[in-house]
Amino acid sequence: MIALEVIDITSNPVNKYVYLSIILFAIGVMGVLMRRNAIIILMCVELMLNAANLLLVAFSAYTGNVEGQMVVFFVIVVAAAEVAVGLALLISIYRNISSTDINLLNRMKG
Amino acid sequence: MREYIFYFLALVSVISALMVVFSRNPIHSVLYLVVCFFSIAGHYLLLNAQFLAVVHVIIYAGAIMVLFLFVIMLLNLNKESEPHKPIIIKFASVISASLLVLVLIAAMVNINPAADSHPTLHTIGMVRELGDTLFKEYLLPFEISSVLFLTAMVGVVLISKKES
Q: Which of A21, A79, B101, B116, by CA, is between 20 and 30 Å from A68?
């Protein structure tokens, strides 16, 4: 059982997780800047949220503080609601302009 | 051993995150993002956050990504329909992301966050400790999040309803 084993985390410095989170966050930013499809942009936002979550869990584990993991729990909850609303908006946009290209959305009217 | 698992998982998550951005088919992006989420769950297991690893897999890979796949299938976007972007925008986004990495790493490289860590309490990721904290100190946010879900559900039905 994985859940019953406790892994010794002292041998692995927390700086590695900082760098990994920075790289994942930057990849998410790059995706938001680069892609046009609104679904891919939503997925890249999820990627950025996960980078922040990973950093919160890492510091929570390394400082022995349970509150970081609680914050991650609530972030997951809010992310689920956010994705549902975002995809509903996307379906509504698709009904109007028959596309999910964000460059077609530069008009406020119509 | 544990370092090798960390480096393997980090490699998998970074490569799959890059493939999310660079693959042209949205279905492939979703599948690579599922791989990335599984590797992040592996990181959670390595950090003794077992409950969060399970919750992460269930909610992200099980619910959110299925929602993405469902919307892509519903809107019939599962083809490489994205028009070709000018190469200068790709270069600009890659360069700005690299500059972001540079700035953040330069900000982090001189501090040592491991100095004031005391990783002695190893069982904080278990269900018992997390549930204890959740239902005592965080009871009000927990209840409010249920209201948030109800609001999101009503809003989603209202937004995606076909106008008559």
A: B101
